Amino acid sequence: MAVLQYLINGLSIGSIYAIIALGYTMVYGIAKMLNFAHGDVIMVGAYISYCVMIYLKMPPVVAILAAIVVCTVLGVLIEALAYRPLRGTSSLAVLITAIGVSYFLQNAAQLIWGVAQKTYSSVVTMESVHLFDGKILITGEVIVTIITSAVVMVCLTLFTSKTRTGKAMRAVSEDRDAAQLMGINVNRTIAVTFAIGSALAAIAGVLLCSASPALKPTTGSMPGIRAFTAAVFGGIGSVPGAMLGGILLGVIEELCKGLISTQFSDAIVFGVLIIVLLVKPTGLLGKQIQEKV
Amino acid sequence: MKKNIHSMNNPIRSLWNNKTRRTTFSTYAVVIVAFVIMQLLDSAGMLSYAMRGQLIPICVYIVLAISLNLVVGISGELSLGHAGFMGVGAFVGAVTSTALQGLIPDATLRLVFSMVLGGIFAAIMGLIIGIPVLRLRGDYLAIVTLAFGEIIRNIANNLYVGMDEKGLHFAFLSEEGLHMSDAGKLVMAGPRGTVNITPIATFLTGFILILITLFIVLNLVNSKEGRAIKAIRDNRIAAESVGINVMSFKLKAFVISAILAGMAGALYGLSMSNVTSVKFSFTTSIDILVFVVLGGMGNILGSVIAATILTLLPELMRPLADYRMIMYAIVLIVVMLFTWSPKLKGAIEVVTGNLKEWLGKLTNKKEVGTNG
Amino acid sequence: MKKLFAFVMAVMMVVGLFAGCGGDAGGNASDKGDAIRIGLSGPFTGDNAVYGNAVKWGMEVAVEEINAKGGVQIHFMSEDDVSDNEKAGTAYATLMDNNMQIFAGAVTTGPCLTLAPKTVTDNIFMMTPSGSNEDIPKAGDNVFQMCFTDPNQGAASAELINSQKMGTKIGVLYDSTTDYSNGIKKSFENAASELQMEIAAVTSFDANTTDYKTQLQQLQSAECDIVFMPIYAAQAVTVLTNANEMGYKPVFLGCDGMDGVLTQENFDTSLAEGLIMMTPYAADNDDPANVAFVEKYKEKSGGEAPNQFAADGYDVIYAIYEGCVAKGITGKTSNADTCAALKEYFATATFNGLTGTNMTWDETGMVSKVPTAVEVQNGTYVSK
Q1: Most C-beta atoms within 10 A of its C-beta, which of A81, C5, C137, C210?
Q2: Is B341 in Cβ contact with A108 (below 8 Å)?
Q3: How do residues B181-240 score in pLDDT, each as one tens digit?
Q4: C21, B323: Cβ pair inside 8 Å?
Q5: Verdict on whether the full-model pTM lies above 0.90
Q6: Where does A2-279 sit in CATH, by number?
Q7: Is C15 contained in some domain?
Q8: Helices C109-122 and C179-194 meet at what angle, rounded to 10?
């Protein structure tokens, strides 16, 4: 019975990783860059929603919307100011700038909101579900997170396959130069990608802090790294891959803590990751890239 | 700085060689001159306490940056776990130094021995990681090296090492597991990191390690093998088709880089009385990567200068108090934009052009600026 | 090479632009006036910033009070070490370059362990407000502690459970990545085995953990009715929230790091009802000295109530101040004389502060305070 509970805990953490990983993977697929500041946009989203809920005493829905709006604007701004000028140069240069942006957001948050941790109030009002005479617990947050990440995944898949902008994204992701020649506005497409990715980050921030209420300037960095790992695990650039990778990572982590060792869980989780990548070098659902001569 | 490999078989070759020699010479010259100046200032008592304390860390970061440049800049593989090798070196070095305290009373000799052993263990780790992992490409290699770094950190965080008259004892998770005699003392205490360490690292050893690193890396880069490695970076399939053994060359660069990082780690571990595993996490790997990219990929002198400036920068910005780290972030972003953005670069070149002219006049063309 | 030039240029430009902002922060340090120069190294940015800032603000309150009195004046300096041993080295060196006379740091364990040997070499008196590791004062006879040592707290907690018959099945939840948590857990286990108490389950988490349900599930499966958790208040908030969601209600027992749990912004204090902790300090103590301290502290912190870190910082400054007054130390006294005089003073001194009364220090430099247990009832501390 305990194993089942660990599994559910894993699903709960994993679905949050999944939603963050979706943002990572989208930006990677289209802009071909590792946006290490993604985790910190999550933190900003959580702070904004916290402020709206606690200081302005608005209902959670308003708080979530405010977080989405602020993060979307922030994401587009970061892209335009820090990443766009470096387009077409080394992808490593953009990576380093992203790290700079990450440091900037963390320190700005510390200056604005202070160093002390804030306790986030869950936006989920749903009651927890108890199964098997209360031996198994599924909290409202878990249910909402899993549903949200599934909905987001479906919407993203539909968006990229059905809409004009979505198709443009796929075209830019396949071959940026060819897409440009076909009349696609590459800059605009990438900006839209960042907007969507950052909106997802806002949602992820709200869900992350609803599940674990500790909110501080470094809240986003560890889940960010984990989600990046999850995105690679599932096959970076692949939307279902990010979802699968996130959930699997969460489940492996919690099963490992519950059944093997809490002290060595990091080593075991990353060990599993290395083995998976050695067996399947492009991740679980990643595309095999053909090399051209 | 990019060298023109295609010009190898034409008359410009001699000139090309000449230029390489000039770059090599100026790299050594800058390092040696900087060392001499620091030594002179120190003996004249003109160095502040804070500056003196920075000398060994700067040496360590320079070696780490150069060695990572070998993998990232020259071999063209993104590694995010360089601090893992540093950590292996630091802990092996600390344990070695304590274990040999009775056997080798001379601190310098013991330091050298510890560094060598740190390098050897890092090399073994490099081989274990490198052989399977270098088959992976690009960002997958990045994530595996990141994972490796985190595994090392996690294991070191739970490792206890003690030393008594019977020798070394190792255990996981608790001190009691060591079963030491009463005379035994701890060397590593899990999350507390290294304990009972007498710092024996010196600036001179750091400087010599830089020279050794430069010697190894510059010779490799300018050798036939180095050209093969760069050929693999620029076009792997073409390189393979002319019979270059891609795996063997990449592995060589990777392992050499690990050895140097391990040695630097040992120097670091023996430069202060306490080092914890947290130091060797992802954050430090990223910091070293920042040095490499800012200094210029494949540019060895660039790594030296970037590592020095970026280590000193947060210290120089101490008067900014609470705004220090946010300013550091802004500096990092602005510098990246100015050095890499095609549009902004144009503006900078006008300024640097003038500056170079001025420098050239000033130093009779012996300065660094002439070989750009 | 152009890139390199551009890089150096850009760094110089940006630094040049902003260098003007800082200005006089470290300015008047070099004049060796009458004021006693006390330095602090602590994490003011990064993950542990909350502890460093609490100590700094607590110390600043004390310094302002003392300076307002007239008489012996204090020049207080603080440098950021991000809780990193290497940065702590430069933070300390920067303080030394600014002619630090007495070292009132560092805040966290690693930097304390790194810097204590340096103060021995430099002959600088050191008193850490919050470095609780038992090895810190062992570095030299000039190194003193203001807080409890870890073993002290672990043993006291085990005795408390035993004497008050608080539970039959004991569970332990600790942070495997901090030395603080590991140290207390170890001494708790040792004391528990001496008292022949049975520990039913031990589980841990690490600094990256955001959710504690799996760990709590392990404790619940082992039917633990008392959970000893030597962890910080910031982590305890999530632990208590998770336990509440799970409907798991054992008695939770914490140590001094747990203090501050009630003042976490927006925390539902009803979740902490029945929580017991060993703490030397309670912010809602209505002693006039404490009321004044809390008020002044809140002005500095932007409304946050002080915790045990802040109170320890405040006490360190007052203890040093009393020592300086007693021994006639001024800013003109040499570092070596200051150190010798303060060592002599603290060998016999008795100190009354916010974190305890009749405190004394033993020959190693460890403080003896009586750990007092408090229980949370109706959102406030009640002595146990």
Answers
A1: C137
A2: no
A3: 777 888 888 888 888 888 899 999 999 999 999 999 999 988 888 888 888 888 888 888
A4: yes
A5: no
A6: 1.10.3470
A7: no
A8: 100
